[in-house]
Automatic annotation (TrEMBL):
InterPro entries in the cross-refs: ROH1-like
Organism: Lithospermum erythrorhizon (Purple gromwell)
Membrane topology: Single-pass membrane protein
Signal peptide: none
Localization in the cell: Membrane
Keywords from the named record: Membrane, Transmembrane, Transmembrane helix
Family: Belongs to the ROH1 family.
Protein name: Protein BPS1, chloroplastic-like
């Protein structure tokens, strides 16, 4: 994706991404403090909800679905905060806008990578479907076709998706620019930047966990350090320790996948594969076939729901970006109109 159609704006690099943006300052009015505190307390609660009583529950599509659902809600929360601040886009600093537009493109690319991987896993379901169909026929020839389909499934799920590799580099870049620039003269701007910092941290965290789960690699799963002054920092640190620890343990134990639904299918395939050649153990084969059919259906349903959540997150990022660009264009048109009214001769210029 490219920003070639966006208004041309300079890009400003920033220094230490973990510097303080908004110290607890008495310069903020009670109303602004209340708005920020309400946002951060809601964010903390969303993070606490994401941490299950048993961290092993994180190894599931259902947790990934909940994580994306929470991310959707957090991005909706910050939109509400912007409305409460009554801070029009015309008052946003160019630097804020540049970073927002740049990051939104990166997040859209991450969503595309996730959708690509979900589609790839769904394609693997076709191998399972063909194998089950052939096993129902109960002939030697069909059994051979069933084994061939299971071989195809194993090769397919073990292959790598190049989009995910690019996804990690995108997320690394977002980590390097987590903070937005310091705000000096705008109290509302300070509140907005502090809220956006929280949104960006949680977004990067969840996207990196999902990328690690999809790719079965915890190499890029480094811990994020956040400012202790944020009301959500303790909940985030607690959740991060639980999630990262569980993902690392799962991958270090030799599991084929972080997602237990995918791991269960793999275990069932491994058990069924040699039984196909044993014609005198029909009962064990029937049991394994039933297990494979059930586990494959659960995986397919989970991937379908996860795909919907990825699409939902993609849409909220896209609509937020489009709304900002629309406001920028309106502001530019109004500015041009004002200049023409002040200089009537401009209206004759083509």
């Amino acid at each position: 994706m490219s920003r070639s159609q966006d208004p041309q704006r300079p890009f400003f690099p920033f220094g230490n991404p973990f510097r303080m943006i908004l110290p607890k300052s008495s310069s903020l009015s009670p109303r602004l403090v209340a708005i920020l505190n309400s946002f951060e307390e809601t964010l903390a609660e969303r993070l606490k909800t994401l941490k299950p009583k048993d961290c092993k529950e994180i190894q599931s599509l259902s947790w990934m679905i909940s994580a994306l659902n929470s991310l959707f809600a957090i991005h909706t929360d910050v939109k509400s905060l912007i409305t409460s601040l009554e801070l029009p886009v015309s008052n946003w600093d160019d630097k804020w806008i540049d970073v927002y537009l740049d990051n939104s493109v990166k997040l859209l690319d991450v969503c595309i990578a996730f959708s690509s991987e979900i589609s790839r896993l769904n394609q693997g379901h076709l191998f399972l479907h063909c194998s089950l169909h052939n096993l129902d026929c109960a002939t030697a020839e069909q059994f051979l076709k069933a084994r061939s389909s299971l071989d195809g499934w194993k090769q397919h799920v073990s292959s790598k998706n190049p989009r995910l590799e690019k996804c990690f580099s995108i997320l690394d870049n977002l980590v390097d620019t987590l903070d937005l620039p310091k705000i000096k003269n705008s109290s509302k701007g300070k509140v907005l930047m502090c809220a956006m910092y929280g949104v960006r941290v949680i977004t990067v965290f969840i996207c990196r966990v999902l990328a690690a789960a999809f790719s079965c690699s915890a190499v890029k799963l480094s811990d994020l350090k956040v400012r202790e002054t944020c009301l959500w920092s303790e909940a985030f640190t607690d959740l991060q320790a639980c999630v990262h620890g569980q993902v690392r343990n799962a991958l270090s134990s030799g599991k084929v996948a972080v997602m237990k639904e995918l791991d269960l299918v793999d275990a069932t395939v491994t058990k069924l594969y040699p039984l196909i050649q044993i014609t005198d153990d029909a009962e064990a084969m029937r049991s394994s076939i039933t297990e494979l059919r059930e586990s494959a259906d659960i995986l397919s349903q989970g991937l379908h729901l996860l795909s919907k959540e990825v699409d939902g997150f993609f849409q909220i990022v896209l609509t937020g970006r489009d709304a900002l660009l629309g406001n920028l264009r309106v502001g530019s048109d109004l500015s041009n109109s004002t200049r023409k009214n002040n200089h009537p001769e401009w209206s004759t210029v083509r």
